[in-house]
């Protein structure tokens, strides 16, 4: 399975270094091809990405496709500004504002490669959920794994949990990101989440920081020894298809360049 994941993350290279007539391309040909890869700005797809099946979940100018969890509208606690999805820090804690709350992209995904950039305000906390379910009167974190978004230097969560499993990039409160390479508050971090037939990989700023396997004995034991069964006794049975969501934890956080490739 690790081989499969490696190949998926290296997909662009696999396509770019194909053979013609049974002969390997020369180093010069490969370098020449790499030199002409199109560079694009945030919230845009290159020709290579389009050809590989990537699509944007955020167009940089509207909230199209996004709505509040268990809502039909896009909540006023969020805004589209300067090419970002911005959660306006209410200072009222997790989903504490009447017009805030977590938001989700209104399509379910099962096997996918997700990329995005995030930037957190000073002392801020947020998260990226995946495979989440909408259950009436429940926050989405009661059903979804979470990639932590955090100001590691200032937020107290960085010192809680176990072995740093509440720091940025971690599978929140379960598996720490290693290496811990998050950039400080106010700077952009790039992340990737890959979900493929139960195997999940988190990447942060170009490095793989963790891997785990859903629906296995190891996974069930990990969850059993955590706080999650108290919140939802069935939490370990993560759905095979679900929503991608962004957390309102009462703090300023910005997201951009949100793109996905279904596998």
TrEMBL record:
GO terms for molecular function: hydrolase activity. InterPro entries: AL/BT2_dom (IPR010496). It comes from the Bacteria. Gene3D superfamilies: Exo-inulinase, domain 1. Coiled coil: none annotated. Signal peptide: none annotated. Residues 53-261 form the 3-keto-alpha-glucoside-1,2-lyase/3-keto-2-hydroxy-glucal hydratase domain. This is 3-keto-alpha-glucoside-1,2-lyase/3-keto-2-hydroxy-glucal hydratase domain-containing protein.
